[in-house]
Amino acid sequence: MKCHYCDLDAAFAVESQGIKVGLCEEHFRDRLDDLAEADELQQLKEEVDVDRT
Question: Which of 20, 31, 21, 25 shows the shortest CA–CA distance to 8?
Fold first, then answer.
């Protein structure tokens, strides 16, 4: 499987409702960085009371 964003081989793949998407390591890290900065992630952390102490 190839990365969704480039022609490199996918290091990670996810499937939802029969659709598979692959990501190379670089694009996987980029997406994680984007998600870490998203408001939705902060809201989810608050809902589940995540504490990293």
Answer: 25
